[in-house]
Each structure stands twice: as structure tokens, then as C-alpha cells.
Task: structure prediction
Amino acid sequence: MKLQNRQLKKNEAIDIQDITMVDVQTEILINKPLDKVAEYAVNPDNAPKWYVNIKSAEWQTSKPLQLGSKIDFRAKFLGRELAYTYEIVELIPHSKLVMRTAEGPFPMETTYTWSAVSESSTKMTLRNTGKPAGFSKVFAPIMAFMMRKANNKDLKAIKMILEQKTG
Result:
């Protein structure tokens, strides 16, 4: 959350919008070339294999992935079944992917970035931002903590999958 590690000054007001904004960023070093990591990660068909909470991904638009592509995801998070549609809003091959959903009680934006650390290793960053609406606002700090925990598991899973692959 944005207010982490920040102390308030005497009589300083807190903007409730800052408190309810969730912004979680995690990263991992994967011992595979950048192109292999990015190509695997951007493919929605692979998401249920490496995302702990995603149970299925179904294309609403035709393949291949491009700006405007829409994918339905089914997930389980904090004990709740979720169904949402992500739209690809930015796609820079082998560099960055941004997808966004606007519906539901917790509109989200997910960003992947990749950077080569060497010819055979890649830093992958996974960032989720969103503003819970309605009753969900109360749970924003808990959601951020749980998202960070899940994202770390997700990145460890994709690392394991890719590092075990040959070629």
C-alpha cells in the first residue's frame, strides 16, 4: 500500500483514496533468456499453470494476443470465486504487458515487465494496482498483503516451470 513506512505529521489528514488504493509489486530472477520468459508469461493459456489463484482462462477475442484482446479469467481469492475479463491495453513484445478490468467490486490493472539481466537470465516484475469499491474498501490492506503473498507464489511457480523446461 502506498502509505507503508510513512509516518503522519501532527494534525496531518489522511486521504481515504490513498488508503483504499492497492499497489503491489513483486519481482523475481528467472534463469532463462528474456524472450522465453516473456513469450510464456504473456500467453493467457499458460496463466492457470503458474498463477496460484487462476483456475481458467478463456479467450473472448481471437488469438494471437494483441492490443484490445479480451480474456475471461476464473479465479479463487480470499475464499471467493471470481470471474472477470481483462483487456490488453499495452503490449510491448519482450518488454511490457498491461491488462485491465473495470467491472466488479475490485477493478484491477496488472502489469508484467521483463528485463534481461544476462543472455540467460531475466528479471520479471509483476504489479497489481486497483481501487476496491464499496465494502471491499475496508479490506484493502488485507487484500494488498494477500496479493503480495499470492504474487510471490506465482513468480516462484513461473520460475520453476521455465527453469525446468529445456530449450
In short: The CA atoms of residues 114 and 124 lie 5 Å apart. DSSP finds four helices and seven strands in the chain. Strands lie at 22-30, 54-59, 70-77, 80-92, 96-101, 108-118, 121-130.
